[in-house]
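User: Okay, second chain of the day. Same drill as before: sequence in, C-alpha cells out.
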Amino acid sequence: MANSAMSAAPYTDRLSLQAKERLATFGVWLALAAGALIIVFPLYWMLATTLMTREDAYSRELILAPPQIIFDNYVNGWNNSPWPRWYGNTLIIVVTSVAGLTLFGLMSGFAFAKYQFRGRNLLFLLILSTLMIPLQVLLLPRFLLVARMGWANTHWSVIGPHMADIFGLFFARQFMLEIPDELLEAARLDGAGEFTIFTRVVVPLAKPAIAVLVILGFSARWNAFAWPLVALTRQEMYTVQLGINYMRGYYFTDFPAVISMVVVSIVPILIMFLAFQRYFIEGIARTGIK
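Assistant: Same drill. C-alpha cells below.
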C-alpha cells in the first residue's frame, strides 16, 4: 500500500504540472486573441462603415454589420474630388523619395560602416543628433529654402527634403556592420573597384535592409501630412493625405465617403508590405538595431 501511494504521487504531480502548463498556454492564447481583437476591430469597423448607407452609418444604434452592402461611398468619394490626380501626385513623390533615401542610405551607411576616416564617429553622432530636432522647428526654414530654389508647389518641394533620411543611414550602417570585412578585401584583391564592390557585393547582400528601408520609407512618405501641407497650397498638387483632409466640409462632412477614401489610401501600403514581407522580417532580425 505504501509503495502504491508513493508511485501514485509522482503521477499526480505530473498531471498537476500538465494542467498548469495547459492553463498557462490557454491564458497566453486568450491574451493574444484579445489583443488581436482590439487591433482588428477598428479596421473592421472602418471597412464596415464604408459599405453602409449614410443613414446606417449615422444611426445611434450599434450596427456591427451593414444591413445592406453598397459601394456608393467609394464612388462618391472618388468622383467628388480629383482623386486620380492626387493619387498620381503621391505616387510620383513617394516612389522618387523612396528611391533616393534607399540609395543614399545604403551609400552613406556603407561609408560609415566600412571606411575609416578622421572624425567618423563624431560625424555620425552629430548626424544622429538631428533626429531630436522636432519637425515643427524645421518647417519654416525648409519652406524658405524650397521657395528660394523655385520648388514651391511642385513635386520637388516634397521630394527634395525627403530624398535623404537619418534613420535610413543609421539602419543601413547597422546592417553593413554585419557584412564581413574579409569579403570586401577578397573582392579588392581580385581587382574590383569600390563602386563594383558596392554594386556587386554589398547591394545583393543588403536586400533585407533594402526591403526595410522601402517599406518604412514608403509608409512614412505616403502618410506624410505636415510638410506637404506647408509646401503644397494648390489643390491640383495635393497628395492623398491632403485630399482626405480637403474632403472635410465646413458645415457637413460625408464621413462614409471620407472613410472610404482612407481605405483606398491604405491599399498601396498593404501591397508594399506583402511584397517585401519576407525580406522585411529578415532585415529587422539580422540588424537588431544594436
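The first helix runs from residue 2 to 50.

User: Thanks, on to the next one.
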